[in-house]
Design goal:
Blueprint lengths: L1 E3 L9 H16 L3 E7 L14 E6 L5 H9 L14 H17 L4 H11 L19 H16 L2 H5 L8 E5 L6 H8 L6 E5 L6 H4 L1 H12 L1
Parallel strand pairs: 4-5
Antiparallel strand pairs: 1-5, 2-3
Helix pairs in contact: 3-4
Length: 223
């Protein structure tokens, strides 16, 4: 299924809407929260965007997640849990630990390989038999890439540059991708006329898991 992403002009009410929702969150789980940030394209003053307020909430500790479920549900949120994957929370905690060492430039080759091994099974709905996680990772290249991404994220490079793109753009997103569809929609919303194709029964790598559906989505764009 392919949908055109609708981008609207910047709405000066967006910062206020974020602050109102932030106050609601703090009101029910404020004692568990380390930080709350308004993220995504609606957080950039003057930038047109898909009109959805994206909020990133950081907890003081991952073990506090369960304590937040009831209070958040009481104000209308839905808990998606571990997306049906037992042990996912523990894997996330270990990946976060490795990522912290990654950001500090202290990560080892063994830890990067471990990270891929932990993330890999959660990236698929049906893991293709011949596809295995990477067994070799360039540590220096990985650390350098991570630092470059952080630098451009802080500079809001994509948010400021993607609205100038004037070529056909298609984002293909598996419906069961661990990364939320909203993140893809937010990025697509920065590019005028871009489209998002969602593929059912598919995770993070649609070209590996559903190659026929992926090819069909690309051919639809090219036609």
């Amino acid at each position: 299924m392919t949908n055109e992403v609708i981008v609207v002009e910047y709405d000066p009410r967006w910062p206020r809407l974020f602050e109102e929702e932030k106050a609601r969150l703090l009101g029910v789980v404020g004692d568990q929260i380390e930080d709350i940030q308004h993220i995504g394209s609606t957080a950039v003053p003057g930038l047109g965007a898909k009109p959805i307020i994206d909020i990133q909430v950081s907890l003081r500790d991952l073990v506090l997640v369960q304590k937040c479920v009831g209070p958040l549900e009481s104000i209308g949120y839905e808990y998606l849990g571990e997306y049906g994957v037992p042990g996912r929370a523990e894997d996330v905690a270990r990946v976060d630990e490795i990522e912290q060492r990654h950001r500090e430039g202290l990560v080892t080759h063994e830890e990067l390989v471990e990270r891929f091994a932990l993330v890999w099974p959660h990236s698929f709905v049906h893991l293709p038999t011949p596809v295995s996680p990477p067994a070799q990772v360039g540590v220096e290249a990985s650390i350098g890439t991570n630092r470059s991404l952080s630098k451009h994220f802080e500079a809001q490079t994509l948010m400021r540059s993607l609205p100038d793109v004037r070529v056909p753009v298609l984002f293909v997103h598996g419906e069961q991708d661990p990364l939320p569809l909203r993140s893809t929609d937010t990025t697509a919303g920065l590019i005028p006329g871009s489209r998002v194709a969602t593929i059912p029964d598919c995770g993070h790598f649609p070209w590996l898991e559903q190659p026929a559906a992926f090819r069909s989505a690309v051919e639809e764009l090219l036609s």
